[in-house]
Design a protein that fits this description.
The protein is mainly alpha-helical and 301 residues long. 72% of the residues lie in helices and 0% in strands. It is built from twelve helices and no strands. It has helices at residues 2-29, 38-57, 70-90, 96-103, 106-117, 124-144, 153-177, 182-201, 219-246, 249-254, 258-269, 278-294. Helix 6 (124-144) runs antiparallel to helix 12 (278-294). The protein starts with a helix and ends in a 7-residue tail after the last helix.
Length: 301
């Protein structure tokens, strides 16, 4: 019974993560690159995450990372830095809707990488679940957004790089997610990531390139940045290891198909979109896809 409860907790954690990730593109585009450059934006997220998780670590049980696990911590930190940097760079060239669209390919990519590196078998049921979930995500994007002139090849390239890094992150960090608390993991990963990202952002730290850090931005920009820092940086990356502790990476990544749904709902709430028949249908398809992947059994089982 406890195992089933843990799995339900993992599903709820993954659901919360991808709801947050669905809001994140709109908030990020509101500040990048008009008020802050992508490299500086990533450095700010890394530094804020480092400060938050180290502060939280003083109020939790201390854990010592085993020598053999440091390679996974460092690898996870490098990939996390690449994920956040590619995500930020994408907004220099494209719009949130395309970031959401390409995020729908994450389950397929994770499934293929898990089969290649973790020897996780690809069953027909799992393949069908991924395909059904992607169809649901595509319904949201293709019916909700018009052709965007900002969908440049370079922007789409950074979107794919972001998803590639993120898929790798899910696979690489799963083993340490089972051994250490999210706070222990994230305090080291964000610290190492800061060492990578801060030097990249420093040359662009000026009132002309990143005015919001010098108080020259509207209140809405700061509210969007605050939302990203608290929810998409700290809360999401606290919950993600909890889901990976009890769920397979392919199952966790299936929830990425919810991102276009969340983005569309936010747009409806803001009056940027209208309610249409395809949205509830897409939600049903996505949930059906998650169910198929979740109930798929490995051959040895």
């Amino acid at each position: 019974m406890s195992t089933e409860k843990n799995k339900w907790g993992g599903h709820l954690a993954a659901l919360a993560v991808y709801i947050i990730f669905g809001i994140n593109p709109n908030c990020s585009k509101a500040v990048v690159p008009d008020y802050i450059q992508p490299e500086v934006y990533t450095a700010v997220r890394m530094l804020f995450g480092t400060a938050a998780f180290w502060l939280l670590s003083f109020f939790t049980k201390k854990e010592k990372v085993e020598k053999g696990d440091w390679k996974w911590m460092v690898a996870g930190a490098v990939i996390l830095a690449g994920t956040l940097l590619a995500f930020s760079e994408a907004f220099r060239y494209t719009s949130p809707c395309y970031v959401s669209l390409i995020s729908a390919t994450s389950p397929l990519l994770v499934m293929l990488m898990a089969a290649l590196f973790l020897k996780e078998p690809i069953s027909w049921r799992k393949s069908a679940g991924v395909a059904v979930g992607i169809c649901g995500a595509l319904m949201i994007v293709l019916f909700s957004w018009k052709i965007d002139a900002n969908a440049t090849p370079l922007g789409l390239f950074f979107c794919f790089v972001n998803i590639l890094f993120y898929a790798s992150y899910l696979l690489i960090t799963r083993s340490v997610s089972k051994k250490y608390s999210p706070i222990t993991m994230m305090k080291w990963m964000f610290l190492i990531g800061s060492v990578i990202c801060v030097p990249m952002g420093l040359p662009l730290l000026s009132p002309d390139t990143s005015p919001m850090l010098y108080g020259a931005a509207p209140l809405s920009a700061y509210l969007n940045l605050f939302t990203v820092l608290i929810f998409a940086t700290v809360l999401a990356y606290f919950l993600l290891p909890l889901s990976l502790r009890v769920l397979r990476p392919t199952t966790v990544s299936m929830y990425s198909n919810l991102q276009p749904v969340v983005t569309a709902c936010v747009a409806i709430a803001l009056g940027q979109d209208i309610f249409t028949w395809n949205k509830p249908v897409a939600l049903v398809l996505i949930l059906a896809g998650v169910y198929l992947v979740t109930t798929s059994r490995a051959k040895q089982n």
